[in-house]
Protein 1
Amino acid sequence: MRSPHKLSVALAAAATLMLAACSGSGGDASANGPVTLTWWHNRTTEPMKSIWQGIADDFHKAHPDVSFTVEPLQNEQFQTKVPLALQGNTPPDIFQQWGGGSLVSQLSSGKIADITQASSSWIGPLGQAAQGWQSGGKQYGVPYQMHAVGFWYRKDLFATAGVTSPPSTLDELNAAVAKLKTANLVPIAVGGKDRWPDAFYFNYFAIRQCSVDSLKTAVEKKDFSDPCFTKAGENLKAFLDTKPFQDGFVGTPAQQGAGSSAGMLANGKAAMELQGDWNPDVMQSLSEDKDLDSKIGWFPFPAVPGGQGDPNSVLGGGDGFSCTTRAAKACADFLGHLVSEDVQKKLAATGSGLPVHPAAVASLKTETHKKISEYVSKAPHLQFYFDIAMPTNVGQALNDAIANFFAGQGGPDTIVKSVSQAAAGNK
Amino acid sequence: MSTATRSRPLTAPSPHAPAAGGARRRSRTRTRLELALLLGPGLVLFTAFVLIPIGVAAYYSLYSWNGFGPLTEFVGLGNYVDAFSGDVFQSAIGHNLIIVVLSIVVQLPLSIGLALLLNRRLRGRTFLRMVVFAPYVLSEAVTAVIWLLILQPGGFIDELLRGAGLGFLVRQWLADPKIVLYTLFVVITWKYIGFGVILLLAGLQGIPAELREAAALDGASGWQATRHVVLPLLGPTIRVWIFLSVIGSLQLFDLVWIMTLGGPANASATMVSYLTDHGFKRYEFGFGSAVAVILFIICFTFALLYQRFALRRDTEGALTRAVS
């Protein structure tokens, strides 16, 4: 009974945590006095692991009252560890937070600190980036870097196929796909196995089709019944019908191995991929090509004719942190430090994401990232990934419906319905 | 074999048999102490990490709960109704059953054949045994990653087929919803065949060569001796293998999760991948617990029935009767 076991162990751990909670611990550290912050972040590998540790050490030097216990955790562990920790009485003081609906789900634990007041003095420069970590007008966390999705492409393969400039409209994209196919190249790679890369397409077609108001209402009410979403699904269908992807794309992983979608792009086996700004790092790890950066370009998701959405709106999200209530003041001060200009410049130089502080854009590693960052800062609307923006169960149900659609099951109406059905508690 | 067991004198005098009554009483206390000492830690761990969590999961399964905050939304058996009425869970159960049936129909004869072959004197037998057994030593995660590479489009298998002039057989092994489950089954077979073979080889070692010889003297052909002498005597081993195989098939997860995540379009979803998808990925811990309880009940019921009806003869005396 191996697998129920795993769940059992998790549940037992939860029970233990609850017991531990009853025995009482710590005490309120929000008053002034020395405090040790436990910090859970997801950077288990270098160089970021040391950079976070260094930032914590620096902060401790400037504020001797605040010390840190830094605990890097595997990204996937947050899914299970955070709910367990928030059920107990000793959650981490600072932990990785992607905002949106999962943040809202966590609020019912009563352990997430409202840092609206504490952040008011420094949150200004973040602009709309900070919105994803708000709920009901209150700030429950802060992003330290943003992400944006767009098309990554191979300049060499575009040249081979005779595509002279990156497509800026859907028609141009379709034309590029046709040309690449004629040249016997795979136009676009997509990591359909992982489902979320499929979702990027539906998300973007919806962003181009729907007005900002419709998007906001739909996400807030978890109801995609506005006809623009069905139209977005139809546009997606028409696009899929051009067969732009590699063979067997529903079984392709996004980031693992040279056969993944990122690997295909990195090794010149495909010409484009709709992916986040993190893609160059992923590609570099899957390729021997030391000169990869110069061969790769970026362009935004093209404009879709007849849509209500602004062609400059961008799909993205971000990485951030939330504070729990025990040491909220010290934690908030530390988050303020993370988004300060100096630290932001340091983070931007690593190239792991787009800075939230505009002054740090110049420190980005590559010209392409500077271009993306500029595009994001000018975007009239930054749409959070739907799956993160909505509660987790609704977001995943939507992603599953989109992935099924990519695999030939269901239609635009199934995608639209999946949202309201999941929101109504149907499985 | 059972006859041999039964004919053993049950009251064989132990060399250390206590002589006096006082000593016997003391020995009884000692036995109890020994039992408590030996079983105690195991029982405590088993209770803390198996029994209580099962109970807790059953309790959670009655609530709609996203893992945060108190359990407030009592839904009774609603989660169970939702699970059984969902297409995806139904097909997941179906996929598990397909794997169960395929395992018995394909893997069992294959294991028996290989075991018979490897039980004969032939050149390089030890090496061949090792080759067959080697995949079993790999972890499921490693197996999954290896096969993911082998099966990727244009990968080893595709090139092998094309090289052999069988290019028309090339399929989208992991991307075609009609094929993916059977692809996974081939990988499962590759991984677990060695275990079956070793188990059956051990069983074959227990069959005295005299029986075969006697059958041969009576004029039985090689096949007849195998069919009527060896196979029936392998019965207990085969029954144990079936038991382990069914339980393993019902809980199939690691390979599936790494190779396909249950996709495409749930074509390779199993009960446990469905559980993980909903419990952890969707933060529906109440619902996930309900699925876990369903899986537990299915496995437990099967185990009890199988023990009662199929394994009874084999375990009689060892499990069903108190050993004095």
Protein 2
Amino acid sequence: MRNLYRGIRNVWRNRSRTVVVLCILALAAGLGLVMLALEEGVSSQVGAMEASVGTMIEIRPAGVYGMMSLGGLGILGRDPGTPADDPPPGLPTAMLEEIAGMPGVTTVAPYVMTIARDQATSTAGMRFARGRMVYGVAPGGDLTVLGGGQVEVVSGRGLEPGDEGMPVVVIGTAIAEREGVGLGDRLLIQDRWFRIVGLHQSALRMAGLGIFMPYDVALEVFELEGLTQIYVWADSIGRVDALRETLQGQYGEIADVVAQKDSLMGRLDEAFSSLSSASRLGLLLSLLAAGVVVFGSMYLVVRERAREIGILKAVGASPRDIVVQFGTEAIALSLAGALLGLALFVALGPAVASRVVQAAAPVPAVPRMAGEILGGSGGEALSRFGDGAFGRAFMGGGRMGMTVGTVEVALTWSLAAKAILGGLGLGLAGGLIPSLVAARLKPAEVIRRD
Amino acid sequence: MTERVVRVCGLAKSFRFGGQTVDALREVSFDLDRATLVGIVGTSGSGKTTLVNLLGGLDSPSAGEIWVDGIPVHEIPESRLSGFRREKVGFVFQFYNLIPNLSALENVALPLEFGRVPARLREERARQCLTLAGLPRERHRHPPGRLSGGEQQRVAVARALVNEPAIILADEPTGNLDSAMSRTIMKLLFSLVREHGRTVVVVTHDHELARQADRTLVLEDGRLKAG
């Protein structure tokens, strides 16, 4: 115990040097903590993104991307060489039940997208064909438009369980205005009358023109061979790859299976990588600087006190006593530096972190990136919408753009514990060699040194 | 009947300097009795300090045997020499060699501390030794920097005494003191022998002191010429 006490007491023997060393250590520790906090913040954001969007798997007919029956409008794509007149294949509804029974599947959502064509008259009296976007969704599920954006029901209700097979629709307020209909009215679609049970609204004009109906009704009314897409959610991110492989194995001949995390998280990694690299490099440099300072300081101490070490050994100190005393001194020094670094982090951490984030991952660039990611689901043409309304809930993309700019750096118990453990580790690592050198000094040689 | 406390047989020590071997001690043999004050004299470079370092286990011999209080010092591995020094040897150096940031009391208690002696016993024993060495009680808590040279050497003597060693090795203990203080310290060393039965080995250039010693060993070019 006395060795420990002496070690701690010795820290303050050369006050001016100790103050300088502590200042350097505090700066290094404070910077290291900022980097650690940033790294944790980024990991936490990525984890949250993975948790919210990473478990979704999209199944679509093989060779088709975009909307099946919109090929003529040039919005969607099909594999090159596919005759334009060939009706695109759909996904059989029987798949829904099969997939729902697979282990690890929490939700299966059918999806149909198509266009209802009717005749309209222009203000100049000319008749022309016009299209209305129709979405077939599972009653009780989200009302999601092309590209993944959700709409908000502003009047009436959405589609609810029990609406299966029923001629009910939820239409956009833009269509209601255009057609001169309202809640409770009837609407003619493909020569069938539907009752309007709800009105929805969206910031996107295209979404405002959408009509939602039960997917089974959409299949029947539009005489479609199958579903446009099936969305499957796995119960955990760890299960996604296995589930995707199972689905690909089972339906590979008729469908393409894409895990959202593969495309989205891959891009997310790119978005975060510069920030993550900067924080890791900063952390490494901080640790290195602190280690060199502790080592250099302790080595100097051992050289200065060589004669004293000889005296201690002459009066009976064992090599172990010497290692404990000088090791304690190194650890006390490092711990004091770590604690000062914590204080510095509390005072200046958020400001420094903000600068690092701005330098390493400019905020305006990130929503653009997010838009591209989201647009990938609905076609490159839609990428310009990506930063905001597009897929906010469906894919969490809008949120991602904002969170990069606001990675939180706050002092947590975990961070404080890491700082203290880091101080201990640094003291041990930086003080070990000088302490061993001290323990090996030969008393007869050093006592007579001036 | 006298009791032998040190036995040295055929002791040799050589060092290597710049590729050359220098013989610091050659074929040195002698015995020392308990409760005697032994002076070691000789010119600079004659091997006095080397001999004291070997006796105290601060260095290992190149050849020969050293027995202190029945312990074969030459056979003790370096890793265990600290235990021997703590229990059997007390050192007094020319420049006092006290730890500057410890009080006089803490300096004296150091050997007991390394021997894992309980704190209360350590302090009690250290106080006794400081009193015996003649340091006033009110000075016990002073750091070395606030003590005179003579007082610091008293603290060093108390530290050498505190573990009740078999021998006290003093390497020119008065070399840094004025003549009055030198006489006081020598009187203290003599009293340790006469009144407390200690064995004290003193390296000195002081012929007067050597004359007063119970026995004088004279070294010349690493060889024992007389004693």
